[in-house]
Write a structure and sequence with these properties.
The chain is an alpha/beta fold and 253 residues long. The protein has helices at residues 3-14, 25-38, 43-61, 82-96, 112-123, 136-142, 162-171, 231-236, and strands at residues 73-78, 100-104, 128-129, 145-149, 178-181, 203-207, 221-225, 251-252. It has a single domain (3-252), classed as Rossmann fold, CATH 3.40.50. α3 (43-61) packs across α4 (82-96) and α4 (82-96) packs parallel to α5 (112-123).
Length: 253
Amino acid sequence: MSGAAHADREKALAEVPDERRFLSMAEADALERELLEDYRFGRQQLVELCGHASAVAVTKAFPLSSLPRKQRTVLVVCGPEQNGAVGLACARHLRVFEYEPSVFSPARSADPLHRDLTTQCEKMDIPFLSFLPAEVRLIDDAYGLVVDAVLGPGVRTAEADGRCARALATLKRLSIPLVSLDVPSGWDPETGSDAEDGLRPDVLVSLAAPKRCAGRFSGRYHFVAGRFLPDDVRRKFDLRLPGYSGTDCVATL
């Protein structure tokens, strides 16, 4: 496909109404299986791609050059599932981008991927908190923003580890900006039925493609991190994603 034809196709996709961009969880699971089984992506590779793109989205929403020193500090809250692994990769990339991340893992995972990503963060001198302050003022005073990588799709608050549920209760009360990865923790990924009483992120980073619950998102910025998807996959799942500018790995919805 020529460069001009590719640009025309991207423009056409970007003009399709938003509701046709959203994936059900069955579709999202099938898309991931396609990447893992047919295209031979590795799980760690996908986590790395999504973690890097999530960090890039943070830099676009909160450019380092525009932030006072205190607001460069980022608390990344990572749960034990795959979204938590993406959060760990995001923290490492934020450090490379010269932000000042810290990590809190309310329920550490024994998964080798989590262990490896944790080791990488520790060797880059990224602090790990031993507990999350119950007094939200202490978090508001210490950090410029928080990244929510606690639950992700497929895990409801009621099903979460009690430590994760307590962390979410604290995050709900924060006054600093909140960035959620893929699905705000605790939301129903299909309906977003917990949106009113759950987390209300300022920024949502949809991984691969937005899930249906993203229709309930009303924050400041919604990014999609799906540049890595092969064209055949985008066509097969009828993904109507926006065009990506230049070499950007995220686009604004």
